[in-house]
Design a protein that fits this description.
Strand content: 15-25%
Keywords: ATP-binding, Coiled coil, Kinase, Membrane, Nucleotide-binding, Phosphoprotein, Transferase, Transmembrane, Transmembrane helix, Two-component regulatory system
CATH architecture of the largest domain: 2-Layer Sandwich
Shape: flat
Helix content: 40-55%
EC number: 2.7.13.3
Structural class: alpha+beta
CATH superfamily of the largest domain: Histidine kinase-like ATPase, C-terminal domain
Number of strands: 24
Distance between the termini: 98 Å
Protein name: histidine kinase
CATH class of the largest domain: Alpha Beta
GO molecular function: ATP binding; phosphorelay sensor kinase activity
Number of helices: 26
Pfam families: HATPase_c, HisKA, PAS, Response_reg
Length: 934
């Protein structure tokens, strides 16, 4: 029964909430509406689709009957309505039932089909002639019956479509066509009754559909609740069962534990009694008044009294030393007051009157942490330890005496780097007394120029706990003498293993270092003498090339003097003179590079470039009967080497090849390639490690070598040349250079079949430093201080600088140049100076200038190759760039412009007046950081 939109579900108090007009779920059941519509659609789709098929069939079938009953004049109109309008619309609705979105439009589409079908019948009623048309209302009744009951249109949509048709029928029968009153009343009555009955039927059908859905949902909900309640009940039963089981287990366990505890208490009591009796140290239990309650056998043995005698004693006890009784009384009182153990050393008087040294430990006993119930005192015989301490003191004294007499350096440092002990050898080595060394704030750090290196070594010792060795460690002794030591140090630890300092041993290697430096100097002189030998071999060819260059310069100069007014020709001649000068400069540069008596640091270098340079220098000295062949792989890697030494290796190998082919001529074949030596193949190549190598091969077609010569080919001073043609050092130098570069050199040769030397150098992944040349406009308006003792060079440089717009203050005398600088230090933007000059050298002048203007850029020019080899020293002195003479002025101006532009981009630097005297720097480098903790 419907009441206020609620329906009771059986005996339950739960009711179905719905709208009695639209039948939609409301209230607590509002969420069920979408679920119901989904289910209603799934259940109704097949029936709705079949209903549409049936409607289409009926509608078209009745159209055929109309064609039989109606006159020919009206048949076409009726045919159009039924077959061309209403029929296609029903067909379209039928197709829509197969669309995915039909679920969203099902009800409005079915309601529209109902209305359009009935409207088509009303239109036929208008067209058909009376009295035949009066009977067409029956078709509307059929539409109502079919739509309300079979098509599965929901109540609200079916009602809207049905009453729309009733209204349309009333309009047509009352106002459009004439209908007799009796027929009008009867037809309307039947039509309205059919619509009302259809509405009630549709309402009931949808209501019971919703009711069934709601009851099923309630049933599922209650079923889920029952299942959940069952699960919770089962879980609760299981939990309670587990708790009961656990409680039983805990009870059994506690009973077992109590039994074990009682047994252990008995065992502990027995063990304590046996332990007290077996203690090597004496033990006594005192009452708060100081009487003995219990003593162990060890205490009886220690004192010489029996247990009964000791228990009968009254304080003060006979075994206490008389002089310590007052101290012991205070110790008992203090221990009771502070409630913690206390210990002390004292003497114990045995029954026979002898004394022993003991260490007592006194602990108060309190009942439940409050009331004092007595004292426990342990007595430890320390006679043996005291004797051992005395022996250790004597041993320590002997140990110190041995350390003092050692020739090796021995020292100890704390964790802050301070000396805590040094032996006499350290004092002799440094020249300082022991007190002076111990007063140093940072120990060795105050005596060396390499404090950071030393700090790093001791930091490694501290972090790793391993011994570290400082090789060639420099030390500034008293008076500024530089000495060297080899120091080995390790970490000292305390008894708990915590770091407490450092110990070290060392030896004075000052003399051996001097010998090593002398040896290195001799080796350098040896290589240089061999270079000079090679230069002498090349001298003839070099002189020939240089004479050709000078001849060209002289010829062009004389031609210009003869035709001074011919500007066009003279410009061309001057360009040719410049080209010849550049060729001469390049030839001199190659000679100086090869013969330089300095060694650069090893850098990543390209062997093809150096090889081509060496072959250019060599080509002029070779006879025309010797042909040079050169091959190199593209995009070759680089090696870590000194370019000058690689140049020397090439010149020596090629020079030997030329000597072997001097009589009969031949082919000098030079090639470069990359090889990979896997582990299985690396060993035969003179102990090379596996990896990638750049291989330089120098082969000749000369007379070759015998096996005996091959065995000695790398021995110093061994030569097969005639007297005066060589020293026999060339290949020995090659061998030394290559091995120092972690490489190897091999030789293959047979008598009459030439020789092939192969040099293997390990490839490096480091990139070669590429210096970018300056570009763009080189003009400027800055002020330059120019210094050169050669007047011709000074005048030409001044003119060229001024040509580019620069202001120049030119000076031949370096002292005058410095005086001019001091008259206005802030005026100058750049200093360009020669190196070799009277009075002040360029380096000395730069040093004085930079004391006044720190950071002022200085360019140093030199014509000496020895200066070129000292670039690192010049960089340390603050020289911005060093340029070898002669140089192309356009390239030089690019460097000038680049330096000035960099200086403009840098922050401005203030100049300062030079002080009259400089402070003593001492042993430490000024500005260096102190790494030791304060």
């Amino acid at each position: 029964m419907l009441r206020t939109g609620q329906e009771t579900a059986g005996a339950s108090s739960r009711t179905m909430d719905f709208n009695p007009v639209t039948l939609r779920f409301t209230g607590k059941d509002k969420a069920l509406e979408s679920l119901f519509l989904d289910e209603y659609f799934e259940k109704s789709l097949s029936q709705a689709r079949g209903s549409l098929y049936l409607i289409l069939f009926y509608y078209l079938f009745f159209g055929l009957l109309d064609s039989r009953l109606l006159a020919d004049s009206t048949v076409n109109a009726v045919f159009t309505i039924r077959f061309l309008i209403v029929g296609p619309i029903i067909t379209l609705a039928l197709f829509l039932t197969y669309a995915k979105f039909f679920k969203l439009v099902m009800q409005p589409v079915l309601a529209a089909v109902m209305f359009i079908t009935g409207a088509g019948i009303v239109m036929v009623l208008i067209i058909a002639p009376p009295p035949l048309n009066f009977a067409y209302y029956v078709g509307l009744i059929l539409v109502f019956i079919h739509a309300y009951t079979f098509t599965k249109i929901r109540f609200i949509w079916a009602s809207l479509a049905g009453w729309g048709l009733v209204i349309l029928y009333e309009i047509v029968t009352v106002w459009v066509i004439y209908t007799p009153a009796a027929i009008l009343i009867g037809n309307n009555f039947l039509l309205i009754c059919a619509s009302v009955v259809g509405m009630l039927t549709c309402y009931s059908m949808e209501y019971f559909e919703r009711k069934s859905f709601w009851l099923n949902h309630q049933l599922l909900t209650e079923h889920e609740k029952v299942n959940q309640a069952n699960q919770e009940l089962e879980q609760e039963v299981a939990r309670r069962t587990q708790e009961i089981t656990r409680a039983n287990q805990d009870l059994s366990l506690k009973i077992e534990q109590n039994l074990r505890i009682m047994e252990k208490l008995k065992e502990s009591r027995d063990f304590a009694e046996s332990l007290i009796k077996s203690l090597q140290d004496g033990l006594a239990v005192f009452s708060p008044e100081g009487r003995h309650l219990e003593v162990n056998p060890a205490f009886c043995h220690m004192t010489g009294f029996s247990r009964e005698e000791i228990l009968d004693m009254s304080p003060p006890h006979a075994y206490w030393a008389p002089e310590d009784k007052a101290m012991l009384t205070r110790a008992f009182a203090n221990s009771s007051a502070v409630s913690r153990p206390s210990g002390m050393e004292t003497a114990l008087v045995r029954r026979d009157g002898t004394r022993i040294q003991i260490l007592i430990s006194l602990s108060p006993i309190r009942h439940e942490g409050e009331d004092l119930t007595g004292y426990v005192v342990t007595f430890k015989d320390i006679n043996a330890r005291k004797m051992a301490e005395q022996a250790l003191a004597h041993s320590e004294a002997r140990y110190r005496a041995i350390l003092a007499s050692m020739e090796e350096l021995y020292f100890e440092l704390d964790l802050f780097g301070r000396f805590i002990f040094v032996n006499d050898a350290v004092m002799r080595f440094t020249g300082y007394s022991r007190e002076e060394l111990l007063d140093l704030e940072k120990g060795w750090y105050n005596l060396t120029m390499e404090g950071d290196r030393m700090f790093g070594a001791f930091s490694t010792i501290y972090a790793s706990g391993q011994t570290a060795v400082l090789e060639d460690f420099p030390v500034l002794a008293r008076g500024g003498a530089e000495k060297f030591a080899q120091i080995s140090a390790y970490l000292m630890r305390d008894k708990e293993g915590n770091p407490m300092g450092f110990k070290g041993l060392g030896r004075d290697i000052t003399e051996s270092m001097a010998v090593a430096r002398e040896k290195k100097l001799l080796e350098s002189q040896l290589r240089q003498s061999q270079k000079m030998e090679a230069v002498g071999t090349l001298a003839g060819g070099i002189a020939h090339d240089f004479n050709n260059i000078l001849s060209a310069i002289m010829a062009y100069t004389e031609a210009m003097l003869m035709e001074p007014d011919d500007r066009t020709k003279n410009v061309t001649r001057l360009e040719n003179v410049k080209k010849a000068s550049l060729r001469a400069r390049e030839l001199i540069r190659q000679i100086l590079t090869f013969s330089r008596n300095t060694e650069h640091k090893k850098t990543p270098v390209s062997l093809p470039f150096i090889t081509r340079e060496a072959l250019k220098l060599l080509r002029a000295s070779l006879p025309s009967t010797i042909k040079i062949q050169y091959r190199a792989e593209e995009n070759m890697g680089r090696v870590m080497a000194d370019p000058t030494q690689i140049h020397q290796v090439l010149m020596n190998l090629c020079g030997n090849a030329e000597h072997a082919m001097r009589k009969n001529g031949g082919v000098l074949d030079v090639s470069l390639d990359t090889v990979f030596l896997p582990p299985g193949e690396a060993a035969p190549h003179v102990n090379l490690s596996p990896g990638r190598y750049i291989r330089l091969s120098v082969a000749d077609t000369g007379q070759g070598m015998s096996p005996d010569v091959k065995k000695r080919i790398f021995d110093p001073y061994y030569t097969t040349k005639e007297k005066g043609e060589g020293t026999g050092l060339g290949l020995a130098v090659v061998h030394g250079i290559v091995e120092a570069g972690q490489g190897a050199v091999t030789v293959e040769s047979e008598v009459g079949r030439g020789a092939c030397f192969r040099v293997y150098l390990p490839e490096t992944l480091e990139k070669e430093e590429i210096q970018e040349s300056a570009a763009g406009d080189v003009a400027g308006d800055e002020t330059i201080l120019l210094v050169d003792d050669e007047s011709d060079l000074l005048d030409s440089y001044t003119a060229l600088f001024r040509h580019y717009g620069y202001h120049v203050s030119a000076h031949q005398c370096s002292s005058q140049a410095f005086a001019r600088f001091m008259s206005g230090p802030e005026q100058f933007d750049l200093v360009v100076t020669d190196q070799t000059m009277p009075e002040l050298t360029g380096l000395e002048l730069a040093a004085k200038i930079m004391k006044v203007r720190p950071g002022l850029p200085v360019i140093l020019c030199t014509g000496y190759s020895s200066d070129a080899g000292d670039e690192q020293s010049f960089e340390k002195a603050g020289i911005r760039k060093m340029i070898m003479k002669p140089f192309a002025f356009d390239e030089f101006m690019k460097d000038v412009r680049k330096i000035l532009d960099e200086e403009k981009a840098a922050p401005a630097k203030k100049f300062k007046k030079p002080s009259s005297s400089s402070g003593r720097q001492g042993a430490r480098v000024a500005g260096s950081k102190d790494p030791w903790p304060s």
